[in-house]
TrEMBL record:
The keyword Lipid metabolism does not apply. This is Amidohydrolase-related domain-containing protein. GO terms for molecular function: carboxy-lyase activity; hydrolase activity. It comes from Nocardia pseudobrasiliensis. GO terms for biological process: secondary metabolic process. Residues 24-293 form the Amidohydrolase-related domain. The keyword Phosphoprotein does not apply.
């Protein structure tokens, strides 16, 4: 399957309009193939955590997905993966370390789950060069402040390695989603570099409050402002000036390949906010380049 040329043309035109040679995407998914196919099957079935039709726009084999991102001008991206049960994270980390080793434009990604072995395999991941972690509170169904993770968060805080955390209650609330558990976590680890996925949807205001309170908290724009997302969890337009105030800590994320629209639409959704080309350049490249020292 070839990369869609019209898709490439639209993304390239966006980059040219705002004067941006490259994009950094902090929220993309690469996983072991059997796991990825199970994720796709879950979306196809409109499972309990989505509860809506969710066609996968980039249901291609791995090498085509990589070629697609590179054709879009994506300079660096992540391989976000996450466990839904114990004794799974270490295996995922082994896979992602190997993936990063032969995919130099992928930021070495790791994950964890609240279990006694977590501090050991997180230490191993950090020692092997992990540059970003993924935590999915909704799928994992655990409290981010679980005592089993205290040492893990301490390691990430000391190493200044960011964690992309899906902690908002969208698309469906979980037992531990929402700003409360994250606020508890940050009180214990105020220097922690958290990247709040999806701008914390739908608790946008509360997560913006946390970002303003803690200087190392960032937010990613994954799926936000797209037609698909606005139907269910619209961002409050009165809060748009706060995105300008936090312009240095907003990061572009796409959720590629698991999106039900084109990659170009995700970028156009940001552009039509009319927050300016400088804001777009920061969000789509400069902020992530600084956070991950890619300059």
């Amino acid at each position: 399957m070839r990369v869609d040329e019209d898709d490439i043309t639209e993304v390239t035109a966006f980059r040219q309009r705002i004067g941006l040679p490259e994009i950094i995407d902090v929220h993309t998914h690469f996983m072991p193939e059997p796991v990825m196919r199970k994720v796709w099957a879950y979306f196809d079935a409109a499972g309990p955590l989505t509860q809506r039709t969710w066609p996968i726009a980039y249901r291609h084999e791995e090498q085509v997905r990589l070629k697609t991102l590179r054709a879009f001008g994506v300079r660096a991206f992540t391989a976000l993966l996450y466990p839904h049960k114990p004794q799974m994270a270490a295996w995922l980390n082994e896979w992602s370390a190997e993936f990063a080793a032969h995919t130099p434009d992928c930021l070495h990604t790791a994950t964890f789950y609240p279990e006694p072995s977590a501090p050991e395999y997180v230490h191993t991941a950090l020692e092997s060069g992990a540059r970003v972690f993924k935590v999915h509170i909704q799928v994992g169904d655990f409290d981010p402040a679980d005592p089993l993770l205290t040492e893990v968060w301490g390691q990430l805080s000391d190493a200044a390695v960011p964690a992309v955390i899906h902690c908002g209650s969208g698309p469906v609330a979980g037992r531990f989603t929402g700003p409360g558990p994250v606020a508890t976590l940050l009180r214990g680890f105020p220097r922690l570099r958290l990247i709040i996925a999806h701008l914390g949807a739908p608790e946008y205001i509360e997560f913006l409050d946390l970002a303003e309170q803690y200087e190392n908290v960032h937010l990613d724009t994954t799926m936000n402002f797209t037609d698909f997302f606005e139907e269910q969890d619209p961002f409050p337009r009165a809060a748009l000036p706060r995105l300008t105030d936090l312009a240095d800590r907003i990061l572009f994320g796409s959720d590629f390949p698991n999106i039900p629209y084109t990659y170009a639409h995700a970028l156009h959704a940001l552009e039509r906010l009319d927050l300016g080309d400088d804001w777009l350049r920061k969000v789509c490249h400069h902020n992530a380049a600084r956070l991950f020292t890619l300059d």
